[in-house]
Design a protein that fits this description.
The protein is of the alpha/beta class and about 325 residues long. The chain has one domain. About 45% of the residues lie in helices and about 15% in strands. The chain contains eleven helices and eight strands. The strands form two sheets. A five-stranded mixed β-sheet has the order 2-5-6-7-8, with helices on both faces. Helix 3 packs across helix 4. It is globular, with a radius of gyration of 23 Å. The relative contact order is 0.15.
Length: about 325
């Protein structure tokens, strides 16, 4: 299940790494927003209904165990019956036929992908298979320059399968469910999947890792997957370490100046300039950024838009209002 985007205390998580990759300052802006809420006793935003529905769907999907009739693995089940039974246990009502079929086909895709990897390796060569469904959070502590501090990045895969061979190699399959209608970055360029693959590899070195995204926007028979060999996993470690370090160093500088919400002091000119230069205004990322309320670069861009685009057209709006009231 994807991390809750509305947690009160900011943290570096796999689900938010696409923002970190796009905007190095986003994590510090999130801390600014957290301090602002803390200072005035404002609770964090409540998750929308779509988030609650997504949590329910993830619970349902994690309740159906892996099975492969062809490979003789797992307990054979009638998937329709199992889905209906677990939905009843969890009190879930499907909103529409596409909602039901997303869940049904997501399980099929998950089973097909894991089975495919086992078949590629050769079932006789497989020594052990371990599968976690939305239950094992992964962590990595990243030391910061100077050796005094460290930051932590974490993630919770919806599906994490590790397949160990008799020769001592370890292959992994990571899957993430996207039960909303928002467009997703494909698996080959998905920063959440990249981070999850790295975190699993950091926990126990992998020979290779398959990552996949099962989205409601995908057709029922389409599997969006990517393959990380050892070289790509090493490259993932380098880029995530770099992005995490850059992001956490900015946040550390902020915390050195503003140790807590009660400090109530303005940022120094130097740090404010660093944050502005590290910020990137992009509607695809800013819209979902938890710290956008404190982003001075975004506010400036909106002010410029108002001044250059909206205000010159104000006479048109006033003319329309006059014509409407006269009619």
């Amino acid at each position: 299940m994807a991390d809750n985007e509305f947690h009160a205390i900011p943290r570096l998580s796999a689900s938010g790494m696409y923002r970190v990759f796009a905007c190095t300052a986003s994590f510090t802006r999130e801390w600014e927003a957290y301090d602002l809420r803390s200072r005035y006793g404002v609770p964090p935003p409540q998750p929308p209904q779509e988030a609650f529905t997504g949590i329910q769907r993830h619970r349902l999907l994690s309740a159906i165990p892996f099975s492969s009739k062809k490979l003789g693995l797992g307990r054979p089940i009638n998937l329709h019956d199992a889905l209906k039974a677990e939905a009843g246990n969890l009190g879930i009502r499907f909103e529409s036929a596409p909602d039901y079929w997303f869940c049904y086909n997501a399980i099929l895709k998950r089973n097909r992908l894991i089975s495919h990897v086992i078949e590629e390796l050769g079932p006789a060569m497989v020594e052990r298979i371990s599968i976690n469904l939305d239950e094992k959070r992964l962590f990595r502590s990243v030391p910061l320059p100077g050796g005094r501090d460290a930051t932590e990045v974490s993630g919770l895969p919806d599906v994490s399968a590790q397949i160990r061979t008799r020769s001592g190699q370890c292959y992994a399959v990571i899957c993430d469910y996207k039960s909303g209608w928002k467009d997703q970055a494909p698996a080959t360029n998905n920063k959440q999947l990249l981070t999850l693959a790295h975190l699993l590899d950091h926990q126990e070195p992998l020979t290779a890792c398959y990552v996949s995204l099962f989205a409601k926007t995908h057709s029922n028979n389409f599997i969006d997957a990517a393959y990380y060999d050892r070289q790509l996993l090493d490259q993932a470690a380098e880029v995530i370490t770099l992005k995490t370090t850059q992001t956490a160093e900015l946040q550390r500088s902020y915390r050195a100046e503003i140790p807590n919400a009660l400090a109530e002091r303005p940022l120094s000119g130097g740090l404010a300039s660093r944050l502005d230069s590290a910020s990137r205004v992009d509607i695809d990322h800013c819209l979902f950024c938890s710290g956008k309320v404190c982003c001075s670069k975004l506010r400036q861009q909106l002010a410029d838009f108002k001044r250059h685009e909206l205000e010159p057209r104000q006479h048109l709006v006033d003319g329309y209002r006059g014509a409407s009231s006269a009619g």
